[in-house]
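Data card: per-record layout.
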Amino acid sequence: MTLIAALAFSVSVMPASAAQLDNDARSAIPLNVQQLIVIDYRAMQNSTAAMDLKARVLPPELKQLEDALKSSGFNENHDVEILAFAAYRAGNGDSTKVVGIAQGQFSVADILANFKKKKIKFTSIRNNHLYPMGSSGMLVTFLNPTTMLFGSNDAIRPALDARDDLAQNFMDNSAMMTAMQSVDSEPLWSILDQKGTQYMMRSLLGQASQLADYDTVKKRLLSSSYTMNFDNGVKFSLYVITPDTFTAATMSSLLNAAAMYEKVSGTPTEKQAVDSTTINSAAGKLEVSFAASDSQFSSLLQSPLFQSVVK
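The structure for this 311-residue chain is written out next.
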C-alpha cells in the first residue's frame, strides 16, 4: 500500500482534535503491523479536497471495509468518531491482512436488537460474538460498548487472538508504539514499519529509486510516520527514522534529486507542488513537509505526477 494510496482514506479533520485509539483497539492489532492509519472520522464530509482525494485513490481493501460498515446499518457520519485501518503481516509474512477499528458512541442494544429482528445470527470465537455485515462477507464484533472490530474472517481471527492474549499484539511492538506516541495527538496520522517504509519511499522516489544510493540505504530505513489535515488548505508532514545522520542525509539528497527532476520535466502544477515541498534531515530523521491551497491540491490530483505515485 503506497503512501498516497493510504492517504486516500485521510479525510478532513479539525485542528483541535486528536485521533487516539483506546487500549482495547490497540490490543486487537496484531504484533506484525505494517501500517496503521487513524483518522478523526467526524469531520469526513467537511472538505471537498479530502473527498476528491478519497474518490480517486481509495485502495480496494479500504473501500471494501467502508462499504461493509455502511451496509451493516451503522450511520458512519454520526456513530463513528475514530476510524482506523491496520495492515498486518500474517503467517510467515508473505501475505497482508487488513482489519478495521471504529470507535464512537454506539447504541449497542439497538444494533443487536436490529440484528435479531433481521434474524442475523452470530458465530463465536471464544467469548466474542461475530455478526455478518450485510452481504459483504465481512464480520463485526464489539470489543467494548464504544469500540468495534471488523474485517474478513481470516483477518479478524488473528486480531482477536491478539486481543485475547493468545498472541502478541501491537502494544508489544515497542518501535511502533514509540512511533505512534510522536503523532497520535494529531487528528490524522499513520505509522509504517520498516518494510512499509521501504515500499513507500520507493514509490515517492520514482525513477530516483533506481539509483545505486537507494539500494545502499533502503535497508537502513527503520520506520516512518505522517500526519495530514485539510484545515485551511492541505498540510502534510512525513518523518522517516534512520539509524544515523548519513542515511537520513542520503535519503534527503535522493528526494531532492527526484524533486528537481519533476521541477524540470513536470507540468506547471507539478512544479508548483515541488516549490511547496521542503525536504530536510537532522539527527537521523528525514522530514518532508508539503502545503497547498484546496484549489492547488485539486489540480495536483489530476496531474501525471500524482497518478504515477499512486499506482
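Known properties of this structure: Residues 194-310 form one domain. Confidence is low (pLDDT under 50) at residues 1-16.

See the next section for split statistics.
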